[in-house]
Amino acid sequence: MFTGGKDSTYATRLALERGDDVVVLVTMMPCRGDSWMFHSANIHLAEMVARAMGIEHLPVQTSGEKDRELEDLRRALLELDVDGVVSGAIASRYQRDRIDLICRELNLHHITPLWGRNRGEVINEMLSRGMSIMVSAVAALGLDEGWLGRLLDIQALEELKGLQAKFGVDPCGEGGEMETLVLDAPWFLSRIEIVRARKEWNGLSGSIIVEEARLLEKMGLRKG
User: Fold this and answer.
1) Domain ranges, ordered by start, for the chain
2) Taking phi first (over 0 means left), then psi (-120 to 50 degrees means alpha), and beta for anything else, what does residue 135 get?
3) Which of 116, 136, 118 is nearest to 45 (CA)?
4) For residue 212, is it left (φ>0), alpha (ψ between -120 and 50) or beta?
5) CATH number, span 6-217
6) Which of 14, 15, 96, 143 could form a disulfide with 20 if both were Cys (CB 3.0 to 4.6 A apart)?
7) Is the distance from CB of 19 to CB of 83 less than 8 angstroms?
8) Which residues pair with 183 in a beta bridge?
């Protein structure tokens, strides 16, 4: 399950490193912004992140309605010749349990490289491994408009720790506080450059809408 965000991107990388053959990155494309299951901010760029990684991409439209999302996912997986699903779930039992259910029905393995890990350690590990992660949406006390479009770094993580202590903000955004877009990583064949974007802010939450982006090839890299 791939969104182009930090968790699914890193989970995909870890699955590859452990020897799994990731043949296609499936992105569920909600028709509404308040999907119960699936990431929606800049989801149209998941295909570009997949291209940057050199992996085939499959977009699947979903209603975004709670009772129909699982069926949309089940139908998509049923058509693929695969024996497992990788997801970036870290602590969300809602997401993990529902993907588990579908995998059991279809006799698929659910691979969750990040599940149960300390969230602070995971985000630190992502940065230490050279991932370039942009905040694409926020919805929590303490996360204001200034976070939109910001690249996560050590200073940002320190601020997130403070917000965790003050407001209970999860540093990985597991409670829906934050969504992200990965622009680059050492294993990417290309990096993503944002050409044009605009911010939408309602006073409590918001997102940065990427209107134009492009891939810039990195020389001397091979897939893997």
Assistant:
1) 6-217
2) beta
3) 136
4) beta
5) 3.90.1490.10
6) 15
7) no
8) none
